[in-house]
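I am still getting used to C-alpha cells and would like to learn alongside you. To get us started, please write out a protein record for me. Once you have written the record down, we can walk along the chain together.
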Amino acid sequence: MQDAAEKENRPEVLSETVHNLAKSTRTGSLWLIDNESGMLDAYNLLYPQFVDSEAKKEANRFRNMHQDMLQTTCIFKRSTVDKIFVLYKNGDTVSLLNDFISRNEPFYGELLRSIPGQDSAYRKHFQERVEEVWTWMKQCQENVKFW
C-alpha cells in the first residue's frame, strides 16, 4: 500500500482496508497473510540478482521505504523485542527460520525446489535485516528520557 501511495502520489491509499491481515482469535495478535513465496520475492526485489538501472532504482526506493518505516517506529511489544533478540543472538537466522518452516510447513521444500536460486537474496541479507532492526530497537531504548 505504501508503494502504491508513493507511486501514484495518492496518500489516501494508506487509509484503505488491508485485505491480507487477520486477527488471531486466540491471542488477538495481527497476522499478515502473504503468498507462499512473498518473503523470498521481497528480498529479490530489495536485492536483485541482475542489476539494471531500473532494478537498482526500485531496490533503493524499497530499501529506503523500509528504513523510513523502521525509523519512524520506536514502540515495540516486549514479546517482539524478545523474539528479535533471540534471532539476533542466534547469529544464523536463515537456518533457524528454515528449520522452523520445514517443521511446520509440509510444502516448504517443494516451494524451494520450484523456484531454484530464488532464496539467495534472502539467505544473504536476512541476518543483516535482523541486525538492523535489533540495532534500531536498542537505539530507541537508549534514547528514552524519563522526566
In short: The chain is about 60% helix and 5% strand. The chain has a mean pLDDT of 85. The radius of gyration is 17 Å.
